[in-house]
């Protein structure tokens, strides 16, 4: 059963939403809160350790009804079945999309092209487990017989952002190994990392699904050359590991076959941290914590698969986001975690959301005349309050925001935690209610200054409130956003799992690199030509 290809704007639900929008676009949310003491209860989902309050949104029961009707008309349920069953839903690349299989429970049977993939999934998991244990315990040693102290993940995009974000977010759970991430083709990146390393005690994990990515291969080559300044060719097998689908290319690079951790075409790069791409995570926090991350994701998969849509967290968040994106014309969404640990979370989500849903052609190959993927950005609170919150509160743009918070801190510092959480609660309250002229005057503000001090409020937020940051709760949170991406791709009738838009720049960079070597430049606009000449003159 293929995914239905339905233009959402042709549905009755869409037309209902359009006319409904006209009736509520100017209504202040305050009115609805005043009218209904139970509004928050009606728009809150409690599930396991998640408490998701979406009442501070510009929606009513009627909005919600039409949004749910939209899921019926685009046949979301059928699409979800195709997704979880391993059908070829990534039609443009002719692949299944099965990151969910990587966290499925023992005994699961999931077929790709008629073959059960689970035995292989579990055998790679075993390999990750044993390898992590041997490195962490010191059983496996480097070429001078010393235990490993450092791990360098060499990858980019999905082969970097997921592991880097998770290792950083779960640093509280880290062991003695120091982890580093090298991604940028900028040689200053790799050289800064090398500065900190001792080749005798460093493990290098080269992660590339395709093993053709310029950045990763260049960085791996630079590191290998640096390593060989003090070690021999035979020592490579003790220090270089690779994660890839492209076994031949990995072998050509010089990595031992036993040091290769396979992955599969049915895992998209930006959804791959659950596979051996997460090896650095397993090394940094230990395999049982890595398994708990996967368990959390699996629980969210089950919730998404089985929960009715009105209380299904990824579905509800996806629908609310469509509402702002397509009816209020909101261009972006802010992700504001009230946890310094989630410092890299928005950066990670940018690839997930924007590479997946940044599309302007529908599943029938036709140009789209409605909005698709939102711009994702954000930084942790409370820092961001002192940076860009001014624009969210008083700017001209509507910016729906997800506030992610954890009730208990990891270091048990109650005093800081109460202050942090006071800010967390205060901000969504302020964004909802604003401050009107009479309140400003009551504060003793002189009349002429009142316009500047009035806050309109009516700014939408979701509060994603979780008990504590653990590997399991982080797994749930990441999977929640993965499924939100899926639901939106279905509604917008786009292919969320290809990324052809990344190719053109790569092709042109290849051409320019050759031209720089030969010092001849052809077929450029005159701006680019001037820039190239200027570069040549300076270098
Ligand atoms: O893992 P790799 O094959 O090296 O790919 C790394 C990255 O490359 C490309 O730019 C893709 O757009 C990303 O989706 C991918 O994650």
Protein topology:
Layout: H1 12-24, H2 29-35, H3 39-42, E1 44-47, E2 50-53, H4 61-73, H5 76-84, E3 111-112, E4 115-116, H6 118-137, E5 150-154, H7 161-169, E6 178-182, H8 187-195, E7 202-207, H9 214-228, H10 236-239, E8 240-244, H11 247-253, E9 260-262, H12 279-285, H13 287-306, H14 313-326, E10 332-338, H15 345-357, E11 375-377, H16 389-394, E12 401-408, H17 414-433, H18 437-442, H19 450-453, E13 461-468, H20 471-492, H21 503-518, H22 526-538
Parallel strand pairs: 5-6, 5-7, 7-8, 8-9, 10-11, 10-12, 12-13
Antiparallel strand pairs: 1-2, 2-13, 3-4
Helix pairs in contact: 1-4, 6-12, 7-12, 7-15, 12-13, 13-20, 14-20, 15-20
Bound molecules: 6-O-phosphono-alpha-D-glucopyranose.
Characterization of this structure:
The chain is α/β, with parallel strands linked by helices. The chain has 3 domains: 8-73 and 307-497, Rossmann fold; 115-289, 3-Layer(aba) Sandwich (Rossmann fold); 501-538. 47% of the residues lie in helices and 12% in strands. The protein has helices at residues 12-24, 29-35, 39-42, 61-73, 76-84, 118-137, 161-169, 187-195, 214-228, 236-239, 247-253, 279-285, 287-306, 313-326, 345-357, 389-394, 414-433, 437-442, 450-453, 471-492, 503-518, 526-538, and strands at residues 44-47, 50-53, 111-112, 115-116, 150-154, 178-182, 202-207, 240-244, 260-262, 332-338, 375-377, 401-408, 461-468. The strands form 3 sheets. It has a 6-stranded mixed sheet with strand order 1-2-13-12-10-11, sandwiched between helices. Strand 8 (240-244), helix 11 and strand 9 form a beta-alpha-beta unit. Helix 1 runs antiparallel to helix 4 (61-73), helix 7 runs parallel beside helix 12 (279-285) and helix 7 (161-169) runs antiparallel to helix 15. The chain binds 6-O-phosphono-alpha-D-glucopyranose. Residues 156-159, 208-210, 213, 216, 269-270, 355, 499, 502 line the site of 6-O-phosphono-alpha-D-glucopyranose. Pathway: Carbohydrate biosynthesis; gluconeogenesis; Carbohydrate degradation; glycolysis; D-glyceraldehyde 3-phosphate and glycerone phosphate from D-glucose: step 2/4. It is found in: Cytoplasm. Catalyzes the reversible isomerization of glucose-6-phosphate to fructose-6-phosphate. One of its GO terms (molecular function) is glucose-6-phosphate isomerase activity.
């Amino acid at each position: 059963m293929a995914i239905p290809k339905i233009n959402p704007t042709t549905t009755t639900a869409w037309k209902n939403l359009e006319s409904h929008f006209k009736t509520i676009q100017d209504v202040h949310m305050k009115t609805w809160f005043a009218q209904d003491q139970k509004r928050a209860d009606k728009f809150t989902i409690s599930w396991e350790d998640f408490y998701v309050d979406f009442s501070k949104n510009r929606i009513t029961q009627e909005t919600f009804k039409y949004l749910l009707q939209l899921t019926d008309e685009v046949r979301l349920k059928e699409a979800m079945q195709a997704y979880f069953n391993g059908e070829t839903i990534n039609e443009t690349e002719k692949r299944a999309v099965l990151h969910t299989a990587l966290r499925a429970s023992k005994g699961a049977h999931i077929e790709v092209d008629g073959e059960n993939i689970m035995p292989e999934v579990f055998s790679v998991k075993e390999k990750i487990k044993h390898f992590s244990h041997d490195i962490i315990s010191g059983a496996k040693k480097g070429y001078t017989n010393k235990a490993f102290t450092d791990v360098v993940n060499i990858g980019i995009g999905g082969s970097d952002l997921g592991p880097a974000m998770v290792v950083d977010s779960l640093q509280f759970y880290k062991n003695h190994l120091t982890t580093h991430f090298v991604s940028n083709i900028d040689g200053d990146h790799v050289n800064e990392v090398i500065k900190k390393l001792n080749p005798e005690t460093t493990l290098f994990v080269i992660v590339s699904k395709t093993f053709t990515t310029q950045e990763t291969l260049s960085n791996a080559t630079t590191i290998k050359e640096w390593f060989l300044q003090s070690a021999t060719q035979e020592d490579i097998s003790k220090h270089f590991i690779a994660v890839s689908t492209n076994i031949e290319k990995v072998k050509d690079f010089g990595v031992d076959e036993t040091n290769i951790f396979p992955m599969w075409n049915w895992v998209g790069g930006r959804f791959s941290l659950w596979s051996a791409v997460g090896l650095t995570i397993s090394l940094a926090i230990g395999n049982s914590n890595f398994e708990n991350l996967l368990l959390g994701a699996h629980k969210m998969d089950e919730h998404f698969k089985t929960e009715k849509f009105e209380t299904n967290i990824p579905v509800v968040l996806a629908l609310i986001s469509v509402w702002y994106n397509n009816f209020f014309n909101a261009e972006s969404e802010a992700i504001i975690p009230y946890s310094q640990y989630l410092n890299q979370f928005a950066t990670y989500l940018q690839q997930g959301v924007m590479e997946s849903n940044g599309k302007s052609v529908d599943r029938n190959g036709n140009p789209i005349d409605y909005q698709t993927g939102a711009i994702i950005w954000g930084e942790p609170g409370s820092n961001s309050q002192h940076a860009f919150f001014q624009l969210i509160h008083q700017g001209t743009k509507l910016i729906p925001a997800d506030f992610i918070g954890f009730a208990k801190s990891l270091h048990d510092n109650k005093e800081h935690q109460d202050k942090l959480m006071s800010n967390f609660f205060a901000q969504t309250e302020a964004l909802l209610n604003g401050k009107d002229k009479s309140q400003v005057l009551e504060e003793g503000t002189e009349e002429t200054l009142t316009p500047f001090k009035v806050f309109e409020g009516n700014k939408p937020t979701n509060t994603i409130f979780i008990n504590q940051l653990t590997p399991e709760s982080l797994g749930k949170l990441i999977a929640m956003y993965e499924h939100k991406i899926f639901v939106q791709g279905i509604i917008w009738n786009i292919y969320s799992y290809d990324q052809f838009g990344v190719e053109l720049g790569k092709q042109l960079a290849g051409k320019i690199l050759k031209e720089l070597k030969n010092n001849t430049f052809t077929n450029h606009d005159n701006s680019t030509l001037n820039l190239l000449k200027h570069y040549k003159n300076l270098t």
